[in-house]
Design brief:
Blueprint lengths: L2 H5 L2 E7 L8 H16 L3 E7 L4 H8 L4 E5 L3 E2 L2 E2 L1 H12 L3 E3 L2 H7 L3 H5 L10 E3 L2 H15 L1 E6 L8 E9 L4 E7 L7 E5 H8 L2 H4 L3 E5 L8 E7 L2 E8 L14 E5 L7 H19 L10 E8 L8 E8 L11 H18 L2
Parallel strand pairs: 1-2, 1-3, 3-6
Antiparallel strand pairs: 4-5, 7-12, 8-9, 8-12, 9-10, 10-11, 13-14, 13-16, 14-15, 16-17
Helix pairs in contact: 2-11, 7-8
Length: 350
């Protein structure tokens, strides 16, 4: 290998799919421009299609790159990321730069972050349960006090393992609740016993490791603001209207247009997130700025208005594992950040 070849940075773009099949239209639309942006920066790219039955082939590809950008959901089509995360840690140990690194995902990309960063300024009253026993011991009293809670498994996506739980009545022998799963997206609820619901949640501990509960946000119908970041900088916004936990979902578009970071309606949120909340989160969780994913987002629900009549915001979740779609205009920023981090990693391991 000559010196010119050695100097070329090579970055893999990895997502879940059939290795011999053509990329999906979504992958072409979202990730295709990223391949082009990296090429414009003089970087060689490699398409890496991940499947649990192709570990050795993926490992070989990871040996050929200096860095890898990853788009794989925590849970998808009945599969989780356990084998992939192990493979990515192995690659990182060899000096391959990984975004998002599995260790960073475990710190900021699971629902546990809602519990650990409550004091940051974006939080609400949150409880964390690390076992079915803890859930059974503390959740019933918490529900009795509030009347309505949202339960979330720690590692999930698309509403999987997210429930609205409303207390109906407490009888002498059993507690009756009304539950609604966000994954159904059809405002379908059912009445059952609290014990039966808790039994359903037991399966979440095997993969997610924990479950959290939070108050139901009364302004959910006003929508959710997805705030996109390129590492520690706000990159843009998108107003969305999730319907999975609403009693009667509103009709109409569920996602608004992409908005720039300087969109006037989000300036208070942008200032709080970039100047206060993210620095506080990274310090609290022990994450270096350069280790932040090159693309991630934080979803904010509207909290109650403050004394001045201004909106407040409550963190709903942080998405790190598979952030797509993302605002097309930030594609070049993602590419530049990835190249900078890869070159830092190469210099460190030189």
């Amino acid at each position: 290998m000559n010196a010119q070849t050695q100097s070329i940075d090579r970055i893999g773009i990895l997502w879940r799919g059939e290795r011999e099949a053509e990329p999906s239209e979504r992958a072409k639309t979202v990730l295709g421009p990223l391949f082009d942006a990296l090429a414009d920066l003089g970087v060689a790219t490699e398409r890496i299609l991940y499947a649990d039955d192709a570990i050795d082939a993926v490992r070989d590809q990871l040996r050929r790159v200096d860095g890898v950008l990853v788009w794989v959901n925590p849970i998808q089509d009945g599969a989780n990321r356990a084998q992939l995360d192990s493979l990515l840690r192995e690659a990182s140990a060899r000096g391959v730069w990984v975004s998002a690194h599995p260790d960073v995902i475990m710190k900021m990309g699971t629902k546990e972050v809602l519990f650990h960063t409550t004091a940051v300024g974006w939080g609400t009253d949150t409880d964390l349960y690390r076992s079915p026993q803890e859930l059974a011991q503390r959740f019933p009293q918490r529900l009795a006090q509030s009347g309505q809670l949202v339960v979330k498994q720690a590692r999930g996506n698309g509403g999987d393992g997210v429930w609205r739980v409303e207390l109906v009545r407490i009888a002498s022998t059993e507690t009756i609740v009304r539950i609604q799963h966000a994954l159904t997206r059809s405002a379908t609820s059912e009445e059952t016993t609290l014990q039966e619901f808790l039994d359903r949640c037991n399966e979440y501990f095997a993969w997610s490791g924990s479950v959290i509960s939070q108050p139901y946000q009364a302004r959910l119908r006003d929508g959710m603001i997805r705030c996109y970041f390129v590492q520690d900088r706000v990159a843009g916004f998108c107003h969305q209207w999730p319907t999975g936990l609403l009693e009667a979902p509103a009709q109409g578009p569920h996602r608004g247009p992409w908005e720039d970071r300087d969109a006037p309606q989000y300036q208070r949120l942008e200032t709080c997130a970039e100047s206060d909340w993210v620095p506080a989160m990274t310090e609290l969780l022990g994450i270096e700025t350069r280790s932040l994913p090159v693309i991630w987002d934080a979803d904010f629900l509207y909290g109650p208005k403050d004394a001045g009549g201004h909106d407040t915001y409550v963190l709903c979740e942080i998405n790190v594992s598979c952030v797509w779609p993302f605002p097309p205009r930030v594609t070049t920023d993602i590419a530049r950040a990835a190249v900078a981090r890869v070159r830092e990693a190469k210099a460190t391991h030189a």
